[in-house]
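Build the 3D complex.
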Amino acid sequence: MGEAGLQYLAEAREQTGLPIVTEIMDPSLINIVCQYADVLQVGARNMQNYTLLNAVGQSQHPVLLKRGMSSTIQELLMAADYILSHGNRRVMLCERGIRTFETATRNTFDLNAIPVLKQQTHLPVLADPSHATGKSEYVEAASRAAIAAGADGLIIEVHMDPPNAASDGRQSLRPERFAALVGQLSRIAEAVDRSV
Amino acid sequence: MGEAGLQYLAEAREQTGLPIVTEIMDPSLINIVCQYADVLQVGARNMQNYTLLNAVGQSQHPVLLKRGMSSTIQELLMAADYILSHGNRRVMLCERGIRTFETATRNTFDLNAIPVLKQQTHLPVLADPSHATGKSEYVEAASRAAIAAGADGLIIEVHMDPPNAASDGRQSLRPERFAALVGQLSRIAEAVDRSV
Amino acid sequence: MGEAGLQYLAEAREQTGLPIVTEIMDPSLINIVCQYADVLQVGARNMQNYTLLNAVGQSQHPVLLKRGMSSTIQELLMAADYILSHGNRRVMLCERGIRTFETATRNTFDLNAIPVLKQQTHLPVLADPSHATGKSEYVEAASRAAIAAGADGLIIEVHMDPPNAASDGRQSLRPERFAALVGQLSRIAEAVDRSV
Amino acid sequence: MGEAGLQYLAEAREQTGLPIVTEIMDPSLINIVCQYADVLQVGARNMQNYTLLNAVGQSQHPVLLKRGMSSTIQELLMAADYILSHGNRRVMLCERGIRTFETATRNTFDLNAIPVLKQQTHLPVLADPSHATGKSEYVEAASRAAIAAGADGLIIEVHMDPPNAASDGRQSLRPERFAALVGQLSRIAEAVDRSV
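Done.
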């Protein structure tokens, strides 16, 4: 994302009051991205990019670390350790689906990863049902499952006009479906003695 | 399972009033097994054993068909078609975890399979959180997720004394944990407008 | 395969003098198939069909056991043990490709399985480059590799008219390409101090 | 690798006359590494690190691009395109084993990738039997297979004292076994009308 893109993020943050998460790929851009983003996302393809992990660790900025598409849960925890080792303890982990032989969905949502991670670390554990399914018609079910399994948060792609989205439209919810989903999730969170 | 084993099942059914599900592996035993079992289970290793699929189809007995450990969802549906093609429409499908590179759990619970199957067929869709995780400490989370995702039923292994179980003790719940789980599941079922 | 099919096999054997390998799927047909076939093949989908493994073990007939599409090498050896445990020691193992995320080929040819099996057992180790690749244009390269790695034999699909084959035409060689391949394989076998 | 490490590489190159291949992980070090190395290696974990791919593309230095451990062949070709798009056409591809369910070897050597890549690109195709097997006892067989399948080159780990190697000793050959292997490979290359 170029500086123009960052400027849009800044505007979006100002107008909505929402915090911004954005992906960082180039270690040399960390200082500027930290000015515009509240959380630095390390994407699945870079989960073992140690140069980048060290850089976001040194930044002391909150980090959202996504599991590599064929990384084991243990490798995800070891990647987090690169960040933690710089004294940056604000790390969130995210299960976003793994690569298997199944082709009915874009990825295979490894639901087990949620309770395994909750047992093995005290870091927050998020799930990304949009990437984990790749198809909007399955996002609600996967979201409900993630919350029921104990996830601390979700990343869900939303778009006003999914068929014309620049990327990932196939897995994006329209705002009204997203709003209805939040209602459902709230009920499930209560049923497992959590709040949304 | 020999005839003595079947006799035990008959006694268990009589004493408890519970219906019996048992695995059938040898097509030549179908008639005798149908006398003792209410449901014939076709195991994951036999999901593409066409001789067996045809035999349980001809039996007209209810069938619980488990997904092969590396079978696609489409292949599961095609295996069900072998049974349905004999006019036996009492078929239940079961997601029980697939084989992937992840070793933290015995199998990878393909949670996505539940909404995909619910969309593609009207057959009941079950989940087996015991096999899908292989470790009792994760069975509750996976069970909650399955119900939240829309599963019509669960298969959960329970044993009075898991460390001394003849098989699968590692993934078995003690009765008191099972009872507590049923309570949790009931709350989640309500939250998604289902009943247990 | 019905009895008519078996009759064709018998004619083919008589006219050509070639020994016959054919797949057995139904344990109740073993006696009749043994009359017509020199080797009983247990297919990948039945590698863990224990009823069938026991039956071919009891038959004392030579067996060609194919690796399941997602079976580990260790599981293949354990399946062979079911046959060997009946005193039937004439068992050949066959690597035929495993299921992975790669879609450029029908299966992924696990070349490593050849040296691993050669180290862990004294049973003959075959490879099936036709299924391991699924596309005829890659069959020659995979065949050469298998022989160079130490395979004791190959199963290669050949058809006079692949586009019109009843099954597996996409991976079948025409006779003239097969003949040329045998010449290449002979040279490689010599280079690794084997003979064809 | 720090500057001291690079200095060792320079000495090794001077004393032996051998060209040097070394892995680059940090885009900001490209200029200095280009002074010491003849070829820049992009490792499997960085195959989709686009910042790094662009940097090595701009360098115009020869590049050895290793396949990601769960990348498809198509994704490997697309990663190469990032480098080629900067006008740097000196790119070699390397199959180094993929991640599957099999645990008998460190990775699964996707032998099929060699003929598929040879068909789809004119770039040189290498294989890394050391990583593809992870165990020195299988390296010779995998090396022979790769040459027989048409690989243009091999990367083989060699160490004077494997049990005490700083890394990857389990998959390293001693020099005398490496020398013997080169002799075998020469014979196979001749058998497929290539030279070593």
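The mean pLDDT of chain D is 95.
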